[in-house]
Design brief:
Length: 566
């Protein structure tokens, strides 16, 4: 099979990332991918069939025609196609997102998944086995034949929630770049896209019944350049939003890649853009909300929502449209934020104080909790689940609500021990906006130094958690806040290569020693960098930022003597 001298490239070590649970038989050539290669797809595997044809077909210039048993029957015995076929099938005996990939059967490649998603993750492994060129969009050596090693892989993820949060509010990311990020998540077997759509600095989703949210709320006249302590401003107006059709396209694109989307509408803090659009949403009895504009700098903002019936009805209206755009099947969770809600205005506001008295609440924390409970009941009645940042624990949390634990492990531990589902995303470990090296050349460095190795060694389930509570850790998520990321290249730089390490944390089993082997991961990264190059990802090179990736003179944090998390 592998005797032709045009065979290229020679099977190399697979260097799979994330590492599979079990790999057998690597070494000699097991399969050649060439113009005669066909795909046979059993019912239920059509998303993977389409993805293979559009992605690998484009990379290699191959038709990947439907095979003889495209209707789901048995392959033609001893036929030309039967020995050169990618066969996709389901086996419910496997883990739901698990798969088996085998090239040793003499009939081509078999990918069998426990569900359509499992088959898709198997196809991601096949792409890695085919070499870095399979990550390009057009063939660089048309006609070359690709061999993949003889291999037999059994694999399934450690966690069902393997996510990345992207903040498109601080800096808008064009729809095409969002779709590209969904492809990048899929390439790393990540299956949750947390879409941070609203914040003080911009409202990014079209809401038909409240057009000013995007007419006014999606634009700001200028932007702080660097950390909020920087004196630099970018005077270029910034903004943008996704139309409802853009959102539908993003959701469908994610679903085709077995990625769930978690839309976030952040309330009652982080709401200045909404208040700038509709001043009655703010605490107009204590501040002149009509004078507020979309915020142009960074930090924790005092302008929070007023706890009025009008505000509740307004956000019910917003969420009705959100539920229509993000169907329950692929968006069972709706994120309502709940983080960093400053309480000064509620303390001063007669309207807020009257609410506290009306509902017999003890204080402003309980007022926030009352708002969260309202939307928890509202979402639950519509078949969805509420998830929020760990501040939603303060003042009490409704039974079915889930928590994104960001201020450390503590909130997540408390929530899990109380029986709530938890996504672990502590800022001390997996905030990819934080600098990845302590050197002077890091662009706009903020927060903790968290290297590739630090992220690789992150453990989502803290020691000491009871077995019962550990079952409530749905998984983990890396968060990408974009205050100092003005464009896609800046996002790429912060996210990669660390997202590759994070993907392994989320997917691959923890070794019995509880110590991950970073040296082995680094060896595999040598190949993974070539994949990222082929994908056009503007990652941080191991040797440090390229000159064009540096931002000399733009202030970050910490500066001399400042603690890392200020
Ligand atoms: C957050 O980082 N404010 C959730």
């Amino acid at each position: 099979m592998a005797t032709d001298n045009d065979l290229d490239p020679t099977p190399a070590p697979a260097h799979l990332i994330p590492a599979p649970v079990r790999t057998g038989g690597e070494g000699r050539c097991g399969f050649v991918f060439d113009p005669s290669t066909a795909i046979t797809a059993a019912p239920g595997t059509e998303t993977t069939e389409r993805w293979l044809r559009t992605t690998l077909g484009a990379a290699f210039g191959l038709p990947l025609a439907p095979g003889a048993n495209a209707e789901g029957g048995e392959p033609v015995a001893n036929g030309e196609r039967a020995t050169n076929t990618v066969r996709l099938a389901l086996d419910p005996a496997l883990e739901p997102e698990g798969y088996r990939l085998s090239t040793g059967t003499g009939t081509g490649v078999e990918i069998t998944g426990g569900s359509p998603a499992g088959v898709f993750w198997g196809a991601q492994t096949l792409r890695q086995l085919l070499g870095p060129e399979s990550f390009r969009r057009a063939p660089v050596r048309p006609g070359a034949r690709r061999a993949i090693p003889f291999t037999d892989i059994e694999d399934s993820p450690r966690f069902p929630w393997r996510g990345m949060m992207l903040d498109v509010a601080r800096h808008f990311m064009a729809k095409d770049d969002v779709l590209r990020y969904l492809d990048l998540l899929a390439a790393h077997k990540l299956n949750v896209f947390h879409f941070h759509l609203t914040d003080d600095q911009g409202w990014r989703i079209e809401i038909k019944r409240f057009p000013r949210l995007t007419e006014i709320g999606s634009w700001r006249s200028r932007t702080k350049h660097g950390h909020r302590a920087s004196e630099l401003w970018d005077e270029t107006p910034h903004g943008g939003y996704y139309t409802q059709d853009d959102i539908r396209e993003i959701v469908a694109y994610a679903a085709e890649r077995h990625i769930r989307v978690v839309p976030e509408i952040d309330i009652p803090g982080h709401s200045q853009a909404a208040i700038a659009a509709y001043p009655e949403l703010g605490n107009a009895d204590v501040v002149d909300t009509a004078a507020l504009t979309v915020w142009d700098t960074w930090g924790i903002n005092a302008n929070v929502l007023a706890p009025t019936d009008n505000t509740l009805r307004f956000f019910e209206g917003v969420l009705e449209e959100v539920l229509g755009l993000f169907p329950a099947a692929t968006s069972p969770f709706i994120h309502i934020g709940g983080d960093e809600c400053r309480k000064e205005q509620w303390k001063e506001s007669p309207v807020a104080q009257a609410r506290i008295e009306e509902f017999g609440l003890a204080n402003e924390d309980e007022l926030q909790s009352w708002i969260i409970r309202h939307f928890d009941a509202w979402l639950t009645a519509r078949g969805r689940r509420l998830i929020g940042w760990d501040e939603i624990l303060e003042g009490g949390l409704p039974a079915g609500a889930a928590v994104s634990s960001w201020r450390g492990y503590g909130g997540g531990v408390a929530a899990a021990e109380a029986g709530h589902d938890v996504v672990m995303c502590p800022e001390q470990h997996v905030y990819l906006d934080h600098r990845q090296h302590g050197g002077p050349d890091e662009p706009m460095p903020i927060g903790f130094v968290r290297t590739l190795e630090d992220v690789y060694r992150f453990e989502p389930v803290p020691a000491g958690l009871s077995a019962e509570a550990a079952r409530h850790i749905l998984g983990t998520q890396a968060n990408v806040w974009t205050e100092v990321m003005q464009n896609r290249a800046r996002v790429d730089y912060q996210v990669f290569p660390r997202l590759a390490a994070f993907a392994e944390v989320a997917w691959s089993p923890l070794p019995a020693s509880a110590e991950r082997d970073f040296a082995d991961f680094e060896r595999r990264m040598a190949t993974h960098y070539a994949r990222l190059d082929a994908l056009g990802v503007d990652y941080r090179p191991p040797s440090g930022p390229l000159p064009r990736q540096q931002r000399p003179g733009v202030l970050g944090r910490p500066i001399d003597g400042t603690p890392p998390n200020v």
